[in-house]
Amino acid sequence: MARLKHISGDDLYLGRTDGPMVAAGDVLRVDGDLIAELADAYVIGTADDVLVDPETGQPGFGGGARAWPKATWELIADAKQKKE
User: Fold this and answer.
1) CB-facing half-sphere around the CA of 68: CA atoms within 13 A
2) What count of other Cβ atoms lies within 10 Å of the Cβ of residue 32?
3) Backbone torsion region of residue 15, taken as left when φ is above 0, otherwise alpha when ψ lies between -120 and 50, otherwise beta
């Protein structure tokens, strides 16, 4: 289970405009683990969410994987260590 801290400084709705409100500084536990770290986002999901394009061999993500923008979220250290 990954833990993410809301760092944007503004309260926001999670996922959609009628989703739960997340206050600045809140820490969330989300289902899944860190499966990739991109330049601008953390990708949280399960090993089943990692897909490879059979034609190009390029990795991709599907299923329940979700990208969490680094501008808004900070991955808590214990979740980062699972990836290393």
Assistant:
1) 28
2) 19
3) left
